[in-house]
Amino acid sequence: MIIHYNKNLKSLASELRANGTKSEVFLWRYLKGKQLGVRFIRQKVIGNYIVDFYCKELSLVVELDGASHHYEESMLNDASKEAFLKSLGLEVLRFEDNEVLGDIDNVLSVLMDYIERDRK
User: Fold this and answer.
1) pLDDT of 71 strictly over 60
2) Please, what is the angle between helix 22-31 and helix 104-118, to 10°?
3) Residue ranges of the alpha helices (H) in 2-120?
4) How deeply is 87 buried, as exposed, middle or buried, from its count of CB atoms within 10 A (0-12, 13-18, 19+)?
5) To the nearest 10°, the Cα dihedral for 1, 107, 22, 57?
6) Chain centroid to CA 78: how far?
7) Considering the entire predicted model, what is its pTM?
8) Residue 6 φ then ψ, to 5°
9) Sign of the CA dihedral with 19 first, then 22, 24, and 26 last
């Protein structure tokens, strides 16, 4: 499947990779280099959105939500983004920043369960 993207967002995605949030940088330590058996990409442009992590092999997007995602406007934007991603056949897993930073074992367990379920 070819996923089209807004080329104007590539430089922003690159900037976001260089200046990731604490939870993004922390989770990336576990996702990079196919440590979970599949390849993830950071700050991938999909359509008019930038997703935190993307795995093409699994059609999976992983989003990390910080405090700013709890405001009404952010929640509406997140809902629109998720609806668009699902319309492309992508699955979206969301984790709170504090989950990643405070209970990485559970986050990795959820991801591994998804990966193993998808491979069956």
Assistant:
1) no
2) 50
3) 10-18, 22-31, 72-87, 97-102, 104-118
4) exposed
5) -20
6) 12
7) 0.87
8) -80, 110
9) positive
3-state DSSP call for residue 48? coil
Using CA atoms, how far residue 90 sits from 87, 94, 108, in Å, is 7, 13, 19
pLDDT band for position 120 (50/70/90)?
A: low
* CA proximity to 30, closest of 104, 99, 110, 116: 104
pLDDT value at residue 6: 82
SS3 99: helix
Tokens of 78: 């997140």
Residue owning tokens 């668009």: 84
